Amino acid sequence: MSSIPIADHALLSDCHSAALVTTDGSVDWLSFPRFDSPALFARLLDDDAGHWSIRPAGDAASTRRYLPGTMVLETTFRTSTGTLVLTDALAVGAENTGHALGRGAPHLLIRQVACMQGTVEVDVEYAPRPEYGLIRPLLSHVDGGVSARGGAEWLVLSSPVRLQRQGGSAIGRSTLTAGESQLFGLHRSTIGEQPARIWTQEELRLRLDATVAAWRSWGELHQSYDGPWRDLVHQSGRVLQALTFRPTGAIVAAATTSLPEGVGGERNWDYRYSWVRDASLTMEALWVAACPDEAADFFAFLTTAAAASLVDLGAPLQIMFGVGAEHDLSERELGHLRGWRNSRPVRVGNGAWSQQQVDVYGELMSAAARLVDQLHMLDEDTRRFLVAVADAAAMRWREADQGIWEVRGEAKHFLYSKVMCWVALDRAITLADRIDASDKIDGWKRTREEIRATVIERGWSEQAGAYTQSFGSAELDASNLMLPIVGFLPADDPRMLATIDAIEARLTDGRGLVYRYDAAEGVDGLAGEEGTFLLCTFWLAQAQAMAGRIGKARAAFERAIAYVNDVGLLAEEVDPDTGELLGNFPQAFSHIGLVNAAWAISEAERRAASAS
Fold it and tell me: What CATH number did the domain enclosing 103 receive?
């Protein structure tokens, strides 16, 4: 059973795949060559599922940071005899620049140790376990490192230290004095490809320097926000970029699978896929930093993955895809893994891929409207795709669905889903000239107004004194904080203010963090409860800012960012009892919320200053 706090991990990314590193210098998660590939190290989910640690022998205190402007991690260990700095990176391609971050990743994890003061003994423990810990590979000495073969994997660890095989692991110890350094590199290939190879110390050093330079180049081109909480917003932008699968433009919801929404519970899902909703909202958040390359790649990905069925067959838009545009994401359980703190089952795949969630039309069209200037000339396929998205929203808005929270209970007429169909048509009308759909404007307008009237009439509950989760329900749902954010209602509309107040008063924990909904009511068809949802707390801050309640907005924002870990990362949820981070990590939704709420507060303060 893994028990290391989720917040104790830091993310590495090459915009193809991800690794998580603990404060103690252990890589406890690594998936090559894609985010959703079977993990080579999975101690995150089971102590016996593989890791690679480099740390001082004996006791050491550690602090860490990302090198400024990068996703390259630096951990500083202080011992009684000296100071050691460990630098970790997933290498990007040799020719990467700010406009091409992540192209041609070599599937290489680089780890550098440098003694800064005194003398430090360094322990290395390497225990690869391909296929989520199912395989104990055959380890062999090669000149300059260790080879591991098992299943479809061929791994070579380039090591300046001779490692001794011990069971299914390789261990070693070296001594560094001030000014000395060593570089290690883990390279992966598959059977039939060019074999993984030994990297020299100079090659690893050059590739590490190039990776730092590439991240900084990306930031110089894209990190333009200069408002409140600037550093956190910039870090969130880098995290969202790090969750992008560069070969296709897909954006994953998180880097991990099965980190639970409640300790010991069953709410454990695989988030290493590209949700249309999440990716669209990510693109809107990255709009703050103006990312034309990412916008074009993302819409090209969606056009390839989804357009054929939507345009030609009239089928619902699939709500999520594999990062290579795969459609079938069938879910299965990995029974050999005990899960983080015995939170079973551990799942790969995600059964939500076959759900109907009609809100996705709105998020997609909203992103298209926001990013249209960055998309330049829309090609015919993309124009047809966007027209089909709007038509699907007009056709399906009356249907019940599983909603934004992907409930596994009964389909309902969720308010948020209806509102997002309104958004889809509203944005399609503004884009009509750009997507060659002027002849559809009148019909889209009629349906848009019908949706609005229905939501206003049937979405309000006198019993709750608020807009509620679904038609005929008195249950609150934090997704209704989006009504002013998407422009459906003004934030200062009396009923909207009442909804904001109701959520703040009755859908929060003792810390003032917001729940998605009341899980005890059983709407999601799952047992147990869950933590508060950080995205929803950021939504509360954003809605308060738009309502002119800047003080309340700042207070809600500060409550949420109190749970940012030491390197600026957020998970999905917070345990209402312990305050620990819960859920998959790092979570795109949480960082999207941070960026958008900071922007909204900045704009509200600017407007207030102009009016004074």
Answer: 2.70.98.40
Q: How far apart are CA 182 and CA 163, in angstroms?
A: 14
CATH number at residue 577: 1.50.10.20
What is the rounded CA–CA span in Å between residue 495 and residue 462? Answer: 10
Domain enclosing residue 35, as ranges: 6-200+210-218
pLDDT digits (tens, 9 = 90+) for 340-398: 999 999 999 998 888 888 999 999 899 888 888 777 678 888 888 899 999 999 999 99
Q: pTM here?
A: 0.95
**What is the SS3 assignment for 298?**
helix
pLDDT classification of 190: cutoffs 50, 70, 90: low
| Residue 391, in any domain of the structure | no
- Which run of H or of E encompasses 50? none
The answer to whether the beta carbons of residues 176 and 57 sit under 8 Å apart is no
Q: Spell 288-322 as b/e; 16+ CB within 10 A means b.
A: bbbbebbbbbbbbbbbbbbbeebbeeeebbbbbbb
Q: How many CB atoms lie within 10 A of CB 456?
A: 13
* Residue pointed to by tokens 């200053």: 609
In this predicted structure, what is the pLDDT of residue 524?
Answer: 62
Residue 290 has pLDDT above 60, yes or no: no
DSSP symbols for 171-225: EEEEEEETT-EEEEEEEEEETTSPPP----HHHHHHHHHHHHHHHHHHHHHH---
> Could you give the CA distance from residue 215 to residue 404 in angstroms, rounded to a whole number?
33
Higher pLDDT, 150 or 139: 139
Q: How confident is the model at residue 523 (pLDDT cuts 50, 70, 90)?
A: low
Spatial contact of 5 and 48, defined as CB atoms under 8 Å apart: no
